[in-house]
Amino acid sequence: MKLMKCIVGLGNPGLKYQKTRHNVGFMVIDQLAKRNKWTVSKHKFQSHCTIETVGNEQVILLKPQTYMNLSGESVKAVLDFYKLTPEQLLVIYDDLDLPVGKERLRQSGGHGGHNGIRSIIDQLGTKTFNRIRVGIDRPEFDVTVTDYVLGKFSKEQHLAIAESIDRSVAACEAWFNRSFLEVMNDFN
């Protein structure tokens, strides 16, 4: 059997959420697919997905359609079906604690209040899986966190988030051929 890796971008389904800060994981998956001329259109595992061959392994791109709070259900279904370990998983998601335009790669950690990551940790029973945290900054003034993450990036943030998405895509592509630790050392 070929080696496999699963790259998951977190977000919420539907046009209403399409360009929101909380959907930056979806944006990375979409850009990764676009750069490689792939289409993430299969409906399986409560997600939109595709399975592509890169070198000697298969890569699954996954956009859970369960809404953020239940993302772990989709991720667990894929890992169980293909008998993948958490080490074969990479999850991309938005992070309030990083400024827009910054990203951090980690191999484990808590959920940091992120409900999608909380769901994945709960479903998998481990905090150890690869992650790319994409900075979206914290809200200013009297904006609630919910309203902020479900809001769209400001005009001032567009260039920085586009560059961050591109760097995240490059990190995913680097992971096709190298260990995540090596990728982490290069991109952090």
Automatic annotation (TrEMBL):
Chief location of this protein within or outside the cell: cytoplasm
Protein name: Peptidyl-tRNA hydrolase
Stabilizes the basic form of H active site to accept a proton (site feature) positions: D94
GO cellular component: cytoplasm
Transmembrane residue ranges: none
UniProt entry tagged with the keyword Cytoplasm: yes
Annotated site (Discriminates between blocked and unblocked aminoacyl-tRNA): N12
Catalytic activity: an N-acyl-L-alpha-aminoacyl-tRNA + H2O = an N-acyl-L-amino acid + a tRNA + H(+)
Gene (UniProt): pth
Function (record text): Catalyzes the release of premature peptidyl moieties from peptidyl-tRNA molecules trapped in stalled 50S ribosomal subunits, and thus maintains levels of free tRNAs and 50S ribosomes.
Subunit structure as annotated in this protein's UniProt entry: Monomer.
EC annotation from Swiss-Prot or TrEMBL: 3.1.1.29
Species name: Amphibacillus marinus
Family the UniProt entry places it in: Belongs to the PTH family.
Keyword Lyase tagged: no
Compartment list: Cytoplasm
